[in-house]
Amino acid sequence: MSSPKFERVKSSNPRLAGFLDRLVGYIRAQIQAGQPYIIPKLAAAALHLKEAEAVVLLEVLAKGDVLQRIYNVYCRNQGTLLATVDEIDTLDEIPRCDDCDQDHDSEDLQVQIAYRPKNGDLLGVAA
Amino acid sequence: MSAAGKSGKKATASKQSLSLSDQAHQQILDYLRVASENSGHPEIRDAAIDLAKNRSTFQQKQTARLSPTLTLLACLLILGVAGVSCWYFYINYRDVAPILSMIVIGLALVGVCLFAMFAGQLSQANFVVVTKLVWSKISGILSRSREHTIPDPAEQDSRPSQDEA
């Protein structure tokens, strides 16, 4: 049995159905392995796609409300994860970097996008 | 980061000076651009183009500086003033009323487009297109009216002067 939202996304993008099925299979496997976030680079490697192609598929799922896009903010100097935010507007309220012991400017920070299942829809499918 | 990496050092340097929200938005657009240009799968390319269009429109509306209501009121005011001006020209300056009306309508159109741009309803590129079009029309009208009003020097010489008469 598949999630109704996912089925809606597939029916509105019939040409991508094969790719989306493979991607959702990967997402389910990640969730079962205890990985909360889907990183485009890793998804691309698993599906033998380019990273940009994986982002397109993940964005299609995000647009269909199956996934939620999140933003991981890293300190450029130390490479440590400072925060994970859901909304793009809250990106400019990043907490102090404990490793560097300072409030970084935006040029000292790096943002990377990732995705997570929304409302546990895909978790329900996996169970 | 491969999408950003492919666009070279220039893109990275400009990206570093952006705010984090702009960086995130740019990163997604970069991925979509790379996918739409380089993907070997036409269905993914088409999806990338659709997503990029939607994303640009969304971002344009997000960065709007004026509310839609204020924009609507301002546009109605501009069009109202333009209408009253045209009426005034036809009542008081019947000879030049068509020219003046065309100029006022052109300026009103630019004003409306300016408000639409600040409200996120019109892109900068389209605003430039409209402005150029209006400017070319106005300059055409002005040059045509000058041709009609400035007498031909040859014609002026051939005409007998008042002193000779």
Keywords:
heterodimer, A: 127 residues, alpha+beta, Arc Repressor Mutant, subunit A, 3-stranded antiparallel β-sheet, B: 165 residues, mainly alpha, elongated, disordered C terminus
Please provide a written account of the structure:
The complex is a heterodimer of chains A (127) and B (165). Chain A is α+β, with helices and mostly antiparallel strands and 127 residues long. Chain A has one domain (4-126): Arc Repressor Mutant, subunit A, CATH 1.10.10. Chain A has five helices and three strands, in the order H-H-H-H-E-E-E-H. Chain A has helices at 4-12, 17-32, 40-47, 51-63, 121-126, and strands at 67-75, 81-85, 109-117. Chain A has a three-stranded antiparallel beta sheet. In chain A, helix 3 crosses helix 4 (51-63). Chain A is elongated. The model of chain A has no long low-confidence stretch (mean pLDDT 84). Chain B is an all-alpha fold. Chain B folds into two domains: 2-62; 68-150. Helices cover 81% and strands 0% of the residues of chain B. Chain B has eight helices and no strands. The longest helix of chain B is centred in the last third of the chain and has 26 residues, at 124-149. Chain B is elongated and about 65 Å long. Chain B starts with a helix and ends in a 7-residue tail after the last helix. The model of chain B is unreliable at 1-16 and 161-165 (pLDDT under 50). Chains A and B meet through helix 4 and strand 3 of A and helix 3 and helix 4 of B.
